[in-house]
């Protein structure tokens, strides 16, 4: 029996407590300028004003003084590909050519488990130095790529979701499985990793164009056998892709319907992109409790289009934010929030910084059905948090001095900030990254 441990962090503390769209900006967050976050055995015990809370606690309590810093919940990246870490910034192509010219050749390297392991380590180092503590992650078609992913996540004690790519057509031979091997490999990985500690499995058909009907049916079979595993795929990202899906599945009503016909549209299903969804598809996702991952840097980089956040949300679809590395151009959720703002500007919509904080933390947790465990600092939740240095650069320092309130500071952080602004990252109350060593 380990002795129980309790620590407290004194800093400014900000977190979301609900969706601003439903409860209004003011009611949707809490901010403690001089706050105290108390952690017991890796979980949140209390949060409050330093003056009030410190009086109620024993004087022997270990208070870590982080005044001048801002504590936020750990970021939740709802769509990312770890095997694409080394192809960020591949020039010149939109989705389908980008896959053939850059992505598939790189993913072939993951047949070498040592290579996969090296990239997995790089990947987690990047996530943590950017303050991301939970992510929904694509592997490659190789089951070993998922083993090394979960091994690295386990070492760092992170709440992580991942899965093996299913793809049995329109891809290089070396990256193709079959409905049967894909099913069996996924099943083995589920048995090995799903709900082991903080890990979860996602059945991961790449996208409709690379999956036969038989393969999508097998994905549906896995979900029926394991009702609490995730479903992770791509949807309606690029106009050419959508036209191709229409050709390949002429009997389907729309792109989402291809997945729906196989039982893949359900709670814990996360569809990346959804840039070009019609209202009908949004209504279906909302009704099913499925989520969409908004990936602004990827949508801009591949020229995919502008995600209609306001419409999708109004219809009631759960929305998370994803970096979508390697089509996305940054691991930083802070920077991604800034790019989400610009995508909304292009549609004459104002994305409030408190709203984008919600999407990047609690909203992501809700999209993943994990908001009972992570996403904010409600007592009892897991202590995954990030310590932000709002004055990380000279420019941020001088700019922050002009800010009137926390909303402005947060907005400037998303405009100017990235991994330089992350000074420490904590998982389950334990420090897993520090900028200064
Ligand atoms: N659609 C199918 N595969 C991919 C991928 O790897 N990245 C993106 N952005 N879209 C996809
Ligand atoms: Zn993707």
UniProtKB/TrEMBL annotation:
Keywords: Hydrolase, Metal-binding, Zinc. Pathway: Purine metabolism; guanine degradation; xanthine from guanine: step 1/1. InterPro entries: Amidohydro-rel (IPR006680), Guanine_deaminase (IPR014311), Metal-dep_hydrolase_composite (IPR011059), Metal_Hydrolase (IPR032466), Metallo-dep_hydrolases (IPR051607). One of its GO terms (biological process) is guanine catabolic process. GO terms for cellular component: cytosol. Catalyzes the hydrolytic deamination of guanine, producing xanthine and ammonia. This is Guanine deaminase.
């Amino acid at each position: 029996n380990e002795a129980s441990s309790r620590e407290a962090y004194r800093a400014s503390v900000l977190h979301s407590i609900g969706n601003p769209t439903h409860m209004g900006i003011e009611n949707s967050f809490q901010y403690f300028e001089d706050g105290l976050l108390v952690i017991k055995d890796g979980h949140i015990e209390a949060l409050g004003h330093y003056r009030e809370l410190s009086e109620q606690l024993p004087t022997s309590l270990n208070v870590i003084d982080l005044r001048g810093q801002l504590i936020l919940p750990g970021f939740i990246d709802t769509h990312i590909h770890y095997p694409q870490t080394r192809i960020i910034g591949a020039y010149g192509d939109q989705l389908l050519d980008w896959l053939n010219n850059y992505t598939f050749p790189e993913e072939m390297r993951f047949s070498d488990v040592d290579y996969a392991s090296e990239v997995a380590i790089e990947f987690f180092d990047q996530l943590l130095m950017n303050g991301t503590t939970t992510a929904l992650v694509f592997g490659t078609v190789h089951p070993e790529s998922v083993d090394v992913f979960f091994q690295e996540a386990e070492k760092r004690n992170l709440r992580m979701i991942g899965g093996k790519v299913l793809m049995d057509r329109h891809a290089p031979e070396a990256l193709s499985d079959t409905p049967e091997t894909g099913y069996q490999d996924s099943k083995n990985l589920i048995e090995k990793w799903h709900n082991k500690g903080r890990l979860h499995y996602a059945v991961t058909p790449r996208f409709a164009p690379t999956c036969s009907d038989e393969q999508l049916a097998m994905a549906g079979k896995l979900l029926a056998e394991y009702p609490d595993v995730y479903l992770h795929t791509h949807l309606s990202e690029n106009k050419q892709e959508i036209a191709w899906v229409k050709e390949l599945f002429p009997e389907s009503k729309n792109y989402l319907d291809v997945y729906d016909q196989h039982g893949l549209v359900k709670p814990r299903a996360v569809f990346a992109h959804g840039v070009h969804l019609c209202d009908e598809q949004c209504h279906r996702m909302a009704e099913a409790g499925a989520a969409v991952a908004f990936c602004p840097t990827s949508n801009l980089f591949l020229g995919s289009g502008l995600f209609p956040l306001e419409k999708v949300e109004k219809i009631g679809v759960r929305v998370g934010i994803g970096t979508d590395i390697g089509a996305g151009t940054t691991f930083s959720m802070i920077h991604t929030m800034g790019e989400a703002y610009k995508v909304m500007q292009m549609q004459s919509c104002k994305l409030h910084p408190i709203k984008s904080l919600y999407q990047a933390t609690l909203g992501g947790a809700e999209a993943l059905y994990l908001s009972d465990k992570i996403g904010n600092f409600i007592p009892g939740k897991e202590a995954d948090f990030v310590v932000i240095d709002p004055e990380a650069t000279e420019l941020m320092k001088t700019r922050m001095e002009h800010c009137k309130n926390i909303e402005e500071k947060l907005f400037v952080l998303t405009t100017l900030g990235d991994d330089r602004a992350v000074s420490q990252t904590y998982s389950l109350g334990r420090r897993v990254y520090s900028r200064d060593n």
